[in-house]
Specification:
It is a single chain. It is built from three helices and twelve strands, in the order H-E-E-H-E-E-E-E-E-H-E-E-E-E-E. It has 194 residues and is α+β, with helices and mostly antiparallel strands. The protein starts with 10 loop residues before the first helix and ends in a 17-residue tail after the last strand.
C-alpha cells in the first residue's frame, strides 16, 4: 500500500456496497463477485410451484435471500430458502446458513456448473441439511442431503435424482413435491452434470 492510500476494503465490503444494475442480481461465491441476469419465466414458475407446495404455517419460504457462509467467503442468493418459521432474524440482509433447512436452485444455461458444482460444495460446507437442484433442461430434480466436509472438498453424502412427473420426497420438510407441471426449457446440448 502506498503511504497516501487509505485501507483497501475487502471483497465482502466491496460486495456489500455494490450497486447492482436493474435486471441483474449479484452473489459472492468463494471471494468472487458474480453478476447474472434476472431469471426468466420458466425459472420463476418453478420456484413459485415449489414455494406453493411447502406449508406456510410451519416453514418460512424466502425468494432470493442472501445466505451468510462467512467461512466460505460466500454470500450466495439461492432461488428459494426454506427455514423453520420463527427461527430467522427479524431483520438484516444475511441469513446465517445454520438456520436454513433447504436451499433450492433452478438451473439455467449459464448457471449449470455453479449450481451443480460450486454451490453444492458451498452449501455442504455451510452444513445446509438439504439442497434441491431443479433442472428444467434435463427435466429432473436432484435432492442432496447429509452434508459433510469443509471448503471445496465439502459435499453431500446422499444424492437422489427424480425425473419431472415423479414426486420428490423432501423428508426434512415432511412434504412430497409434485413436479408434473414444472415447465421445461427447449432442448439444448446435454450438459455434463447429473
Amino acid at each position: 500500500m502506498l503511504p497516501d492510500e487509505g485501507p483497501r476494503p475487502g471483497v465482502a465490503d466491496f460486495y456489500e456496497a455494490l450497486a447492482v444494475p436493474e435486471g441483474y442480481r449479484a452473489e459472492l461465491l468463494r471471494g468472487t463477485v458474480l453478476l447474472t441476469a434476472a431469471p426468466g419465466l420458466v425459472h420463476n414458475r418453478i420456484v413459485t410451484a415449489i414455494q406453493d407446495q411447502i406449508p406456510h404455517g410451519r416453514w418460512e419460504r424466502l425468494q432470493t435471500q442472501d445466505i451468510g457462509l462467512l467461512k466460505e467467503n460466500s454470500e450466495p442468493q439461492p432461488d428459494l430458502v426454506v427455514l423453520e418459521r420463527g427461527k430467522g432474524p427479524d431483520h438484516g440482509r444475511l441469513l446465517p446458513a445454520e438456520l436454513v433447512t433447504l436451499l433450492v436452485e433452478v438451473v439455467s444455461r449459464s448457471s449449470v456448473d455453479r449450481d451443480y458444482g460450486d454451490k453444492r460444495s458451498i452449501y455442504a460446507a455451510g452444513g445446509v441439511p438439504g439442497y434441491l437442484i431443479v433442472d428444467p433442461m434435463a427435466a429432473q430434480c436432484v435432492l442432496l442431503t447429509e452434508p459433510y466436509g469443509e471448503g471445496e472438498q465439502a459435499d453431500y453424502g446422499v444424492e437422489q435424482t427424480f425425473s419431472f412427473g415423479l414426486g420428490v420426497p423432501v423428508p426434512m420438510l415432511g412434504v412430497e413435491l409434485e413436479t408434473a407441471e414444472f415447465p421445461t426449457l427447449p432442448p439444448v446440448k446435454r450438459h455434463r452434470r447429473p
